[in-house]
Amino acid sequence: MKKWFIIVSIVAVLLAASTGVGFGMLSKTKAELADTKAELTSTETELASTEAELASTEAELAEIEEVYPPGYFSSATELQNWLATDDISDRSSADAVLWYANAQELQERALEDGYIINAYIWDNLDGTYSVYCDAVTEDNSLYWWDPETDNIYYALDVKHF
Question: 0.70 exceeded by the pTM?
Answer without folding.
Answer: no
